[in-house]
Amino acid sequence: MDSVKQTQLRMLKSGLLLNGFICIIALVFLKNPINFVVGIVFGMAISLLNFRLLYLTLNRAVQMPPPKAQAYATSRYLLRYVITGIVVYVSIQADYINVLGTIAGLTSLKLVILKTELFNSKEYFKNILKRKEER
C-alpha cells in the first residue's frame, strides 16, 4: 500500500477514535446526546469527503500546466467550501442534527491532521524555541 493510502487510513482511524471519544463524553454529560452524536457523525463524514476531494484535486492538479492547475485547484477549493457551507446550513435547519456536533465533526479531522503531522515533529518545536541569535 502506498504512503498516501496509509496516511488516509491513519487519519481515518485517528478521526474515528477522536470522535468516538467525543461521543462517549456527550453520552455521559448531555441530557439529549443523540442529536449531538448525529451531528458529529454527519460532520465527520463530510470532513472525510473533503479530505478525499483534496487528495483527488492535488493528484490531478500536479499533472496540469501551472495556470490550469491554479484555476482547477481554486475551483475545487471553492467547491469544498460550498459543501461545508451546505452542511452547516442543513445542520442549522434540521431539528435532529446538533450544529455544535456538526462543527465538532468538521473540525475534528483537521485537529487530527495537526496533531499527527505537525505537533509530533520535535524539530518543529525546536525551531520555534530557538532564539534568533542561534539561527
Automatic annotation (TrEMBL):
Pfam families on file: ATP-synt_I
Main location: membrane
Membrane-spanning segments: 12-30, 36-56, 77-94, 100-120
Subcellular localization, as worded in the UniProt entry: Cell membrane
Membrane topology: Multi-pass membrane protein
Keywords assigned: Cell membrane, Membrane, Transmembrane, Transmembrane helix
Name of the featured protein: ATP synthase I chain
Lineage of origin: Bacteria, Bacillati, Bacillota, Clostridia, Peptostreptococcales
